[in-house]
Design goal:
Radius of gyration: 17 Å
Structural class: alpha/beta
Oligomer: single chain
Largest sheet: 5 strands, parallel
CATH architecture: 3-Layer(aba) Sandwich
CATH superfamily: HUPs
Number of helices: 7
Strand order of the largest sheet: 3-2-1-4-5
Helix content: 40-55%
Number of strands: 5
CATH topology: Rossmann fold
Distance between the termini: 63 Å
Strand content: 5-15%
Order of helices and strands: EHEHEHHEHEHH
Shape: globular
């Protein structure tokens, strides 16, 4: 029995590359959907989007991309007390809202395009919270009348990184939002002096 067509939310080029073999093994139609209003600043957003376009062109993958920089919608989603994406279960609320924002958009687009199934390359990253992603993915699927494929792709992560290295694709240094950028660089002087970095002394 053939598998259902699937729409794949894409967070970055290395994670898209990580899922390519799995997607092709399914022997059915699929498309990639880049929707990441969380990625900041603007130059970082453009770098990641461009890398996804490169993979799509090289690997003959249909890529649907929301190319408008999403600073205001993302900050609105984080700050709204009435946001339907708010969750408080002992984990970082802003990360929950970020996952939910992207997964809900993907579920909605899947329904609009008659994809009965969707998933996310977030499931290939060992840095992401798989349990929360799965919970929010299934909730989004229920809202929009589609299904969420929660296959665990973390074992494929290193293959995606190696693909990116071989093809000289841009590889990000932090999750995406301005808060994660701060966490990544707060204790370094990276990019201040000709790209050199030095860890600040904590003494």
């Amino acid at each position: 029995m053939p598998n259902d067509p699937i729409l794949v939310h894409v967070c970055c080029a290395p994670c898209l590359a990580a899922l390519l073999d799995w997607l092709r093994e399914r022997r059915t139609a699929f498309a990639a959907y880049f929707h990441n209003p969380n990625i900041h600043p603007l130059i970082e957003f453009r770098r990641r989007l461009k890398a996804c376009h490169i993979v799509a062109e090289q690997q003959a993958v249909k890529l649907l991309a929301d190319e408008e920089y999403g600073l205001e919608p993302f900050l609105d989603a984080l700050s709204s007390r009435r946001s339907p994406f708010a969750m408080e279960r002992g984990r970082p609320e802003r990360c929950h809202r970020c996952y939910a924002l992207r997964l809900d958009a993907t579920a909605r687009r899947a329904a609009e395009l008659d994809f009965p199934l969707f998933t996310s390359t977030l499931l290939a990253s060992p840095q992401q919270d798989r349990e929360v992603i799965c919970e929010l993915g299934h909730a989004a699927a229920a809202r929009h009348g589609v299904r969420f494929d929660d296959t665990d792709h973390r074992a494929r992560h290193d293959a995606g990184i190696e693909f990116a290295r071989r093809h000289q694709l841009y590889r990000q240094q932090y999750c995406g939002c301005v808060f994660s950028e701060y966490d990544r660089y707060v204790n370094s002087t990276e990019h201040l002096y000709r790209g050199e970095s030095a860890i600040r002394s904590r003494s």
